[in-house]
Design a protein that fits this description.
The chain is mostly helical. The protein has 13 helices and two strands; from the N terminus they run αααααααααααααββ. A hairpin with a 6-residue loop joins strand 1 and strand 2. Pfam families: Ank_2, Ank_4.
Length: about 270
Amino acid sequence: MLGGNTPLDIAIEDERFEIVELLLERTTINPKKVYKDGNTFLHKAARSGELEMVKLLLKTLNIDPNQKNKDGDTVLHIAARGGELEMVKLLLKTSNVDPNQKNKDEETVLHIAARGGELEMVKLLLKTSQCHIDPNQKDKTYGNTPLHIAVTGKNLEMVQLLLERGDIDLDKVNKFYALGLPAEIRALDKDAAKVFTHLLEEESYPHFESRVMLAGEQGTGKTTIARYLIGKGPTRMRKSTDGIGLYTGLSYIDRETEEWLEGKQGT
């Protein structure tokens, strides 16, 4: 009957893999068939974490591991998103798998692993020689590289791991801001990346600008407080600033002597 399903199709559609395994002893499967959810059988097995089933399919069928589902995901994308490290290892051993394939969001498997905080998976992807993975590819939504994702997620170990790659481009800019590195550090060579990781460990860096905001109802003395803070006394007569009179005190530090130097005061 046209448009109908075999018992095997139904078992695959419902992801009842114990029944699938039993039926495969008596019948064969179309590895390219796309089911209602936009996935092939291989995609479904990977999404369910069925390592042995994925292994069986790759071994017995002429199946393309780079085939994409409706979202543009390959089976490697799905395995990475599910945190399936052993499955990713298995797929990387498949000679024709391409780890640089992008889905509809233009994410590679490295983007997905970095976002998921999968440190061992990222290490595997970066250090498996046959991968030839490009760590500088940008995604579609934000223009992020895997390093952008690790920095934004404040994942120190992930950042350190990615910086070990000599071909990491620290000057890549996403759609919103430059990769979060001070210009002085970006100008240094790759060996100086340890300076940046130190900044992440300390979660701070020395700077010499401070701002204080005073807020409150009208007539409560905010201007007087501001004048005291910058070394001026109160005015002889109360004069409302209506919240728009700003007083700024400037001071600087000599980095060598660590002495504070007063600057000009202004209004």
